[in-house]
Specification:
Elements (H helix, E strand, L loop, with lengths): L3 H19 L3 E3 L2 E4 L4 E12 L4 E11 H4 L17 E4 H4 L8 E3 L6 H24 L4 E2 L7 H9 L5 E7 L2 E6 L6 H16 L7 E5 L5 E5 L10 H4 L3
Parallel strand pairs: 9-10
Antiparallel strand pairs: 1-2, 2-3, 3-4, 4-5, 4-6, 7-8, 8-9, 10-11
């Protein structure tokens, strides 16, 4: 019978590594990096325990400036805290659960499900956050996930994806979530949420920007009144 360790090794070699390399990362085994001239942008697979019955693992991400790392021959280990990172997180912190996530590979007909799910976590949560951290200016947190619960509960009632992050960036409150410009319901509901934020009178921002999970601009709301009309060109199918 194939052991859990053998299945895990196969899953990493034949499924996980090719999938994350197709997303633009380079590396092999349990350590990968997103090419960047100034920083090591890292993704690591961390094992929690393994025996013949199951292998449990999670994913860690981190960014270390190459200037801080110096001329060392090896890049940083994404699973080891060095104190030189400017950002570090477990994959679960970037997902809707907001806490540590572990996958388990065990013998059986559905053993690949965990590997496929962890690839999806990299594609939809880990990679977008790495890109955002590398390409965008630093943003200050505005509300914690717990503080966003009331707003997200209202979004859930309208079948609109939750707000993943609420951050202050310059004069704007930036809301990020799995929305699409082609979804008029999401736009209308988020316009209402934006009016609520703007009506609070917080002088740190005077507009609300809504972005998708890849950091693309969707909508801008800059008054507490009715939502502005959608531009004609935005309504045309792409």
């Amino acid at each position: 019978m194939t052991t859990a360790q053998e299945l895990f090794a196969e899953g990493m070699r034949e499924h996980f590594a090719p999938a994350v390399r197709a997303l633009g990362l380079i590396g092999c085994g349990l350590s990968f990096t997103l090419p960047d001239e100034e920083c090591w942008a890292l993704l690591g697979v961390q094992l929690a325990g393994a025996d013949e019955r199951a292998v449990r693992y999670t994913l860690n991400l981190g960014i270390t400036p190459k200037a801080r790392w110096g001329g060392r021959a090896l890049r940083p280990d994404p699973n080891t805290v060095t104190g030189l990172e400017i950002w570090r997180a477990g994959i679960g912190e970037l997902m809707p659960v907001g806490e540590q996530v572990w996958w388990e590979v065990a013998p059986g007909p559905r053993w690949q499900v965990a590997v496929q799910d962890s690839v999806a976590a990299v594609r939809h949560h880990g990679l977008p956050e790495l890109l955002r951290r590398l390409d965008g200016p630093a943003a200050a947190p505005y509300l914690t996930p717990a503080e966003l619960e009331a707003v997200n509960a209202a979004l859930a009632q309208a079948a609109v994806a939750r707000i993943k992050r609420a951050e202050l960036l310059g004069p704007a409150l930036v809301l990020t979530g799995a929305w699409s410009r082609a979804d008029p319901v999401a736009r209308e509901v988020l316009a209402g949420a934006a009016r609520g934020f703007l009506s609070a009178g917080d002088d740190r921002f005077d507009r609300v920007r809504c972005l998708d999970t890849l950091g693309r601009e969707l909508w801008l709301f800059d008054t507490p009144g009715p939502p502005p009309a959608e531009p004609e060109e935005a309504r045309r199918p792409s």
